[in-house]
Amino acid sequence: MPMTQAGGHATHVVRMGQGRRQALLIHCSLGHAGGWAPMMVALDDLLDATAYDLPGHGRSADWDGEREIQGLSTDTAAALLGGAGPVDVIGHSFGATVALRLAVEHPALVRSLVLIEPVFFAVALADHPDWAEAHDADMAAYRAAVSAGDPEAAARAFTARWGDGREWDSLPEAQRAAIVQRIHLIEAGAPAIYGDCAGLLASGALERIAVPVLLVEGGNSPHYIAAINDGLARRIPDTRRAVIDGAGHMAPITHADAVAAQIRAFLRDHAPA
Questions:
Q1: 190-201, pLDDT tens digit by residue?
Q2: Which domains does the chain have, with CATH numbers?
Q3: Is the peptide bond before 86 cis (omega within 30 degrees of 0)?
């Protein structure tokens, strides 16, 4: 698996698929590029996809804490595409927010967007400011663990809300260790997903996105995701919605075939020119 310098960051890259349609895959926080493999089995004939490990994830270099992590992740994506676009960009969770930022800052690189469970909380909280107190309560155990400097407790609390439904103690030891090691990256993303430090919402940039967008959510996901997708759909001119029955936040992994079917139908309707 090759390593490359992209956006000034040592980045691990994986190629997947035998199709003719170029795509970029951007995984979730605490994940890695290989997490796309189950979904790509169902899209192998359609996509020629590049997936990369976000800064601090998988085999990519650690995040040094200097550059804002969503911006660095976006610069990495743009560099990997090398100005060759446009391509179909598919992102999950935090990776979906990177995909959204890529479409705003580098529109020539993006042919279409698939945003799976985008965690752009700034949208939901802008539309529902009264939810802030409830959201803080939902994340209280995680916040307390972060404040106490207890990464394992923070990882346990975070995955209980945003994981794949498995109990923490049932996860393989190596997986638990990897999550604990990277849990600080959740806080690193907060200025972008809560504070909109890139100005995607505040600047009106979402209304100027000119490519078709598929918004995907799990039927059993926290209600914030539906509110985020509601807000994105109101702001982005050309959107389609898909709900994956029975799925939660980790839908591309737990319900890979169902997510792939929605992506295939969406891309079929938006063939390259």
A1: 999 999 999 999
A2: 3-128+192-268 (3.40.50.1820)
A3: yes
| 271: helix, strand or coil | coil
> In this structure, what DSSP letter does residue 82 have?
T
Query: For position 82, what pLDDT does the model report?
Result: 86
With a cut of 80, say whether residue 83 has pLDDT above it.
no
Q: Give the H or E element holding residue 101.
A: helix 94-105
Q: Inform me whether the pLDDT recorded for 106 exceeds 60.
A: yes
The enclosing H or E element of 87 equals strand 87-92
Amino acid at 200: L
Start-end of H helices in 106-255: 121-127, 132-138, 140-147, 151-162, 173-182, 184-188, 190-193, 223-235, 251-254
Cβ–Cβ < 8 Å for 25, 114: no
Q: Is the pLDDT of residue 175 over 60?
A: yes
